[in-house]
Amino acid sequence: MAIDTETLERHGLSPAEYDKILDILGREPSMTELGIFSVMWSEHCSYKSSRIHLKTLPTTGSRVVQGPGENAGAVDVGDGLVAVFKIESHNHPSFIEPYQGAATGVGGIIRDIFTMGARPIALLNSLRFGPLEDVRTRGILEGVVAGIGGYGNSIGIPTVGGEVAFEEGYAGNPLVNVFCLGLAKAGSLVMGQASGAGNPVYYVGAKTGRDGIHGATMASAEFDERSSEKRPAVQVGDPFMEKLLLEACLELMQTDALVGIQDMGAAGLTCSTSEMGSRGGAGIDIDVSRVPQRESGMTPYEIMLSESQERMLMVVKQGREAEVERIFEKWDLHAVPIGEVTTDGLLRVRENGSIVAEIPNGPLADEAPLYDRPTEPPAYLAAASRLDPAALPELPATDAALRTLLGSPAVASKRWIYRQYDHMVRTNTISPAGMGAGVVRLKGTNRALAMSVDGNGRHSYLDPHLGAMLAVAEASRNVACAGALPIAATNCLNFGNPERPDIMWQFARAVAGIGEACRALDVPITGGNVSLYNETDGQAIYPTPVLGVVGVIEDASRVLGRVFPGAESTVLLLGGGGGALGGSEYLKQIGGQVAGSLAPLSLEAERALQLLLVELAGEGLTRSAHDCSDGGLAVALAECCFDSGGIGVELMLPDAPHDAPGDGRTDVSDASVLFGEAPSRVLVSVADDDFGVVRMRAEAAGVPIAAQGRTGGERIRVSLAGRPVLDIAVAEAETAWRQGLERYFEDRAA
Amino acid sequence: MKFAVIVFPGSNCDHDAYHTVKHVLGADAEFVWHKETDLKGADVVILPGGFSYGDYLRTGAIARFSPIMAPVVAFAEAGGPVLGVCNGFQVLTEVGLLPGGLLRNRSVKFQCEQVHVRVEELDTPFTCAATAGQVLRIPIAHGEGNYFAPPEVLDALEANRQVVFRYCNAGGELVDTANPNGSARGIAGLCNARRNVVALMPHPERACESAVGSADGLVVLESAVAALGSDGMLRTG
């Protein structure tokens, strides 16, 4: 069959890429070979547009055991343990089929973790949807949440945290980013590589069907009105099968019979065989007729490209076959030998013995095209960065504004969501979901791990470089608020079409920002995922880098949450006092605009603040800590009162920060103090007796105390240079916050 | 004194039950794989939570046919103490050791949250160390925990004092708003007529250490230790 332009287009390959294939093979490819190249060289698998930028990220450090390039990264967390973790996106499938798309996203990231020899112990997720007023969006959210729960709950891995945001730009392109962390003994990690000529290659797990063929190429193309026709490319998840695979693989890893293992995720059998071969510098020879199949009449092309879920590829030591097969039989799974490792470096695919594809592994996996795509600042930036505070319409009273913000789904309690996730199974969860960073204790040690996933598309839209730095800072700060020293990060980069110079500019600027912030905050990137082409009908999402940061708490009994533990405590605002209305939740909700400049970030000040938080928590000097994020100081202060049993607070700001805008308008300058957003600000509560010590430590660390207050009473009150600027009952604020998200689903709530 | 923790394919609270028995309660614990045919001399049997066989046909419906269930039924019929938690409760109703069944929650959603249950009966091996009317704060995590039985069965359960736990508010009052899943008569847990088989939807094993939110559930396991005593003879009430 001749390979014409139309065939190439259908495979998402450019004429130049095809020429490269001809070079590598020295002949025309067969259709099976073309299919193999097309998925391996898709954006999703090859990172061809992003690699050149990703290479600039810091990936090493004293705690890093495994950086990018394997199934997941790993860091040393002490006591002879390593934490294995990664974040991954499943955006496109979740739009087409929300439940299965999200569920299989969870399944995929869990496999990446246990493939490394780690037992998964925590899940988090970062979600983006359009506004909930749209009934279709509510349906997508319901499906995504049910899918995440349906998979994670069933396997028994707690979902301990996450974040959700709502913006118009995600209506046709929701984001589903899932983070998983597992635990392994130091020195026991298993790699995804094939070696040892003659060693058998095993297939285990679900049978192969026609589902998900070209899933990787789908994730590398924009959506249009025909997208729903792509439904057959979305896979269906079977968490029970995955649970069996997880237990059986971990049992197998207790022996030394395994050489290497990799899950069949994107690009299925193709990706797992060629990547394992390439990493081990070996060849792999398989016969697709030995692959267990769910449907009859499948071609080698379909078998190689299928993305059926819950399948693993293993290389085991010759002579240990019976032992390996016995372990899988115990779990009612059938490990099937489908080929062997060779020395010739080729991926050789046979059907009933006859060769149907023969491609050198190295060039296929590692010599994918690499593009330095042109970049150009987006046209919208100049207008969007302008914000004239004096031109704002008259602003509402501060208590009404606070109620509005607390009652908006972005800020409101996410209980309706996390109640559907089992966040307690495995009996390690210290900080319940909805309490800031997710914190799990490490049984058998005194330690705990904290983790947080954060990003802000609106911030990154207005300033991709600073927005990405803010995401790193916020995720690290959330971990530090729990009392954990941030030690490493993973990133999920959600952007539009990289072939557009303005999108590529956003991407390049964001990656540069992540690199800068990760260096300064000492959280190397150990892995992650890039999701491009997040566009529908030419409309790109906000550039949305999402960062997952992991931190270690030395003494698990010292974990802090956001909630004030009682009345009669001293409250301190650590860090700077001022916030910016530019890009804030307030400006969007109240002012109806996404515009302006973001408050700057001093990485040095941020680092000092985070180290101070860890030090204070470690010595038991702080009783709660909560960072000022969406909605600024007033929202953060209110959140410290929620779930406390109605404890109020009074906070006194000495004076408006000198840079508060307003051009003489008090309503604008008050709003920017209360609701303006800025990094490096954390509210802590301390016992009165400890205040003196805390003040000395803050001074020594160079961290200013911007305001002081006390817990008590039943109201949330803020004054500015003695003038009251906010006064609202905790109960009233808390009601708005509790109902903000639930009200959209009331008719179906319990 | 030894607890057997039965492991079905898809069980996922087996490690939690084992951890709690061994490291919090300080008793001996052993996993027993569902394909085994004896209980390895255990004094107490726990059927843990999870999604046995994926809960694909009906919760607990396939697990009841596992080889280990014959010895579990024999152990129960001989008076041995058996505790079913969550999926374990569902398996016990499927195998016929307890009446009724568990339907989908009335929210039609999976729910994970702390709830309160009131201890209604003390003369069982899993409540004998509690006090009458004691309120326990322990979590639920299920999609199908809505207890159902025909009215005459419910009446018989009440008449025989087989309702062991009921959902209540923090003050111990039986109000509908405290019933998380719509269970008939607020039933959170039951025992059989002989009172040695006890099951509940909430997870006491997840609430045995204050570090993870509550230690109220420990009394359920401590009761088993108290009931069996040092001589291994079952005494309750």
The quaternary organization reads as: heterodimer
The helix fraction of chain A, in percent, is: 25-40%
Broad shape of chain A: globular
Biggest sheet overview of chain A: 7 strands, mixed
How is the largest sheet of chain A built, in terms of strand order?
A: 8-10-7-11-9-12-13
* Alpha carbon gap, first and last residue of chain A: 59 Å
- Describe the largest sheet of chain B: 9 strands, mixed
Question: Would you kindly provide a written description of the structure presented here, covering whatever features stand out?
Answer:
The complex is a heterodimer of chains A (750) and B (237). Chain A has 750 residues and is an alpha+beta fold. Chain A is built from 26 helices and 28 strands. In chain A, the strands form five sheets. Chain A has a seven-stranded mixed beta sheet. Chain A has a seven-stranded mixed beta sheet with strand order 23-25-22-26-24-27-28, sandwiched between helices. A six-stranded mixed beta sheet of chain A has the order 1-2-3-6-4-5. Chain A is globular and about 85 Å long. The model of chain A has no long low-confidence stretch (mean pLDDT 94). By secondary structure, chain B is α/β, with parallel strands linked by helices. In chain B, the strands form two sheets. In chain B, strands 2-1-3-4-11-10-9-6-7 form a nine-stranded mixed beta sheet, sandwiched between helices. Chain B is globular and about 45 Å long. The mean pLDDT of chain B is 96. At the A-B interface, helix 8 and helix 10 of A face helix 1 and strand 6 of B.
